[in-house]
Amino acid sequence: MEYHDSEKAQEVAGRVEAFMDEVVLPLEREMLATGDTISNDELAELWEMAKERDLFAPQMPEEYGGQGLDFADMLPSFEQVGRSLIGAHSIRANAPQEGNMHTLEMVGTEEQKEEYLRPLVQGEMTSGFSMTEPMQGGGSDPKMLQTTAIKDGDEWVVNGHKWWTSDGWDADFFLVMARTDLDEHPYAGTSIILVPRETEGVELVRNVGHLGAPELLEASGGHAEIKYNDVRVPVENTVGEEGKGFQIAQMRLGGGRLTHCMRYSGMAERALEISKAYLSEREGFGSDLAEKQTLRQRIADAETKLHMARCGVRHAARELDRSEARIEVAMSKVYTANVCNEIMDLAVQCLGANGVANDLPVAAFYGDVRAFRLFDGPDEVHRRTIARHAFEDVATEEIEHALRFDEDRIVDELKREAPADD
Ligand SMILES: Cc1cc2nc3c(=O)[nH]c(=O)nc-3n(C[C@H](O)[C@H](O)[C@H](O)COP(=O)(O)OP(=O)(O)OC[C@H]3O[C@@H](n4cnc5c(N)ncnc54)[C@H](O)[C@@H]3O)c2cc1C
Question: Does the beta carbon of 94 lie inside 6 Å of ligand 1?
Fold first, then answer.
């Protein structure tokens, strides 16, 4: 499908596609065949190759070693790396690292950029974004945040209990969402505090086991449950303006949601490619399975929806380069997540038992994609945002005329029907 992305976007994506076809997909096939994981050393080799090909960290400015692409231009490259579970990692464009880089680049101080952002981009450091908490803390409703950071002299004292901090087990530092002014509404009194992992009081409790969890990468840092017990860091570790944590998180998540859409749409495309190849080769009931109309209809619907999702993401990315694009991003997130889930289910069905075998990547995709409807805001929360917008400025004149007309007519009829002395 031709999307008329900018020349620059197409040029970089073409090189990313070649890198995926020549290096990443063969490596992934080898891993699936042997059941091995990629070691940190192998990942570092992939990074070197990506750097040699000028593909590394497309989302970051060139001064930090990235490609300096905006959202609209990085989009086709992210779709390409999404075709493999190790694709985004191989060019350092994986969540949550990419979102955390984006946050530090947007609002970090020069010192934070030198000490944390530069090594983060280069893969010398890794990071976690610590927002979600166990019951009854912040989750779908982030206003329920319980973690606090209270000033004591020139230090923050952080206390709280988080979980699902992606890559948390291996992280060198965390961006912790904490309430810093308890008298304010959470939206006005929450800040992001950078906490180095080695700080006293940081307690890594466990990695949360979950559906899918393909252990293709040794370097994948799991989803950590973490306690912050009287953790002291300097007030200079505030990331962005104090009290603006939610606004900054929103900027981070807006971009993060779109990059997830881009990567997962690449994954759905590959699952469809594999399914179509299988259906074209496999015979049953007197013909290729690809000739069965029930399957063809479903593949046609899947192709259509994937195309619609990609168009929507492209529109949202262009808007996000100009503004907050909250509604466009919410629509893209919920639509793409559902389309990718539908497609992965269809792919498993088309492949028969091969759909759930580890010989192909589709089983791992299937396990991985379900969480996309939950993280970075579950479906219902995005629909809530979209509905709130939809009910703003409702044009009541659309019904006023009809209802007044009815009302007048009914009153007239009642008057006519009523006995004179009633
Ligand atoms: C793979 C994965 C990676 C993650 N990575 C991170 C990370 O790096 N950092 C981090 O901080 N968090 C992370 N999370 C956590 C994730 O962001 C939260 O799980 C998500 O915000 C939902 O919060 P919750 O699990 O507490 O669900 P709850 O808030 O308990 O909600 C449960 C369900 O209720 C429904 N619901 C909620 N609100 C409404 C409503 N208003 N109307 C109707 N229905 C509603 C939804 O279906 C929702 O799924 C990750 C989660 C997963 C699965």
Answer: no
